[in-house]
Specification:
123 residues; alpha+beta; Nuclear Transport Factor 2, Chain: A; four-stranded antiparallel sheet; 5 helices; globular
Amino acid sequence: MKRILIVFFVSAILPCLLLANESPTKVVEKYLGYMQYKQYDKMYELHTIQNKQAVPKEQFISECEENDVISLQSFKINSEEIESDSAIVKYQMTYTILVIGTTETIYQVMYLYLQDGQWRINY
């Protein structure tokens, strides 16, 4: 009987629990997608509690709009490193600098922390 319960848990319940949390890579992909389409309010929702306490939503959105000098063209995730409740996602992004029209590709790192079962971005 115990064996049946263990098999049931491993095959049916455990995968559901693991799928409940989006991976750090998925969160960064969402964040960069929101950045690409200038959905600053949705970007803000992916921040850590500490970031939200330091910068109110209205201020974050206002600063994003005021400093909107690039147009994100594309991005690619290069790697993900998870260690307990923190993660590092390395990525590259290609963007156009609007005022001069040049396009550049840069390599970046995004730090995330696990909060309330969800990966959140810490900047």
